[in-house]
Amino acid sequence: MAEKYKSSIFYSIKQLIHNNKILENDDSSIDCILEGDSIKIIEFLDDCDLAYYDSLLLKYKNLLSPEINVVFSTISQYKVGMVFPEDITGIEMKKSFCSREKFPFKYIKNNYLGFEYNGKNISDNQILKNIFITSSANFIYVVERQSVIFPILVVEGKRIRASFYSNNEKKRIFDIDIGTLNQIKKLYSLYIFRFYSKGIIYPGGIEIKKDDERTFSEIGIRNNFKCILFGNSLIKKNKK
Predict the structure, then answer these.
(1) Residues whose CB is less than 8 angstroms from the CB of residue 135 and which lie 6 or more positions away in sequence, other chains included
(2) What is the per-residue DSSP string for 96-109?
(3) CB 72 within 8 A of CB 97
């Protein structure tokens, strides 16, 4: 249950404290916890400096560097607006984004996250002022090469994996974790309607609809499943 209240999905819960006593991560009884009690969550985020972006801005403020406005966008249409000194490098921008969003830097190092501008990858050593056309409203598409950003919904029930394929079933596009007690309409609103005309769940051949309030367990999906996406992806269009 404590997983629902983490500051970020990338935090690890190290301890739960109730009435100044540590709750052990085992099968011990929790009868001592009464309604209305408070539980303190001790979290840990590895390989991420949460002060990185602020430190970078302070450093270049003293250097009087002009600024560039950038909007980061993901497949789920999650957008983050940030301001950067134009003299910083691509890796400094990427780390700033991860710092702001509480993503471990290892996702940059391992190439799990890509950053594209006008369909071209931004390398670590590029200087921002040599990349962007204007100083405002520059849109960067954050490419998720492995499942990093997509699991933004709270997993309810048993955790299962949904694998998404293009309509020819030859290429897996991405994976997400979802719960057997999550509603089907959540899948539609987060991952389908902005990018594809429809999605079909297999086994069962069930179409994902925006108003379907049934849970996955109610339609017999209690294990990992496949979803075939039909129609043109806006992502592909943007890359042309």
Answers:
(1) 66, 67, 68, 69, 86
(2) HHHHHHT--THHHH
(3) yes
pTM to 2 decimal places: 0.54
Cross-strand pairs, 211:
none
- Both 57 and 110 in one domain: the answer is yes
- pLDDT attached to residue 151: 46
Is the backbone peptide bond immediately before 151 cis, with ω within 30 degrees of 0? no
With vertex at residue 112, the alpha carbon angle to CA 42 and CA 162, rounded to the nearest 5 degrees, is 80
**100 Rama sector, left if φ>0, alpha if ψ -120 to 50, beta otherwise:** alpha
Q: How far apart, in whole angstroms, are the C-alpha atoms of residue 212 and residue 154?
A: 18
d(CA 166, CA 172): 7
60 by DSSP, 3-state: which?
helix
Whole-number Cα distances in Å, 138 to 83, 122, 162, 186, 222: 10, 13, 32, 30, 42
Is residue 239 included in any domain, yes or no? no
Q: Which residues of the chain have pLDDT under 70?
A: 1-15, 22, 25-28, 41-46, 75-78, 135-136, 145-153, 168-170, 173-174, 190-196, 231-240
For residues 214 and 183, is the Cβ–Cβ distance under 8 A?
A: yes
The CATH number of the domain holding residue 121 is 3.10.20.90
